[in-house]
Design goal:
four-stranded mixed β-sheet; globular; 2,3-Dihydroxybiphenyl 1,2-Dioxygenase, domain 1; 119 residues; Signal recognition particle alu RNA binding heterodimer, srp9/1; 2 domains
Length: 119
């Protein structure tokens, strides 16, 4: 018997609504924002990510480890070039260091690395 259920990934950031809006657009998930500085996105199957405001937030520095990434999100795309164009249009940054051929590394609006992957 499980002790808990419905895990939720919570991501620290300086602006929860902005980050939820970005990931909501990336995944086409529903965005919800409350009055307490908390935002989340929910997929059609009930998957959820939440975003919480952190004062004096320091984004990770990748690939260095002075400020480690601690976690990141990989999302699958059918075509890397099309996916890249779409996320750049959402205002993300493509990282200058690209260590692979089957994925690309970007920084979300709060500076967290995330990858578009094709395989």
């Amino acid at each position: 018997m499980a002790i808990a259920r419905v895990p939720n990934t919570v991501i620290d950031c300086p602006d929860p609504e902005a980050l939820a809006t970005f990931y909501g657009a990336l995944l086409d998930w529903k965005v919800s924002v409350d009055d307490n500085g908390w935002a989340d996105i929910t997929g059609v199957t009930g998957q959820r990510f939440a975003f919480q405001k952190v004062e004096n937030y320091t984004p990770p520095v990748w690939p260095g480890q002075d400020v480690p990434q601690q976690m990141h999100i990989d999302v699958d795309v059918d075509d890397l070039a099309e996916g890249e164009a779409a996320v750049l249009a959402l205002g993300v940054t493509k990282h200058e260091f690209q260590p692979g051929e089957t994925f690309r590394v970007f920084l979300d609006p709060a500076g967290h690395p995330f990858c578009l992957c094709v395989g």
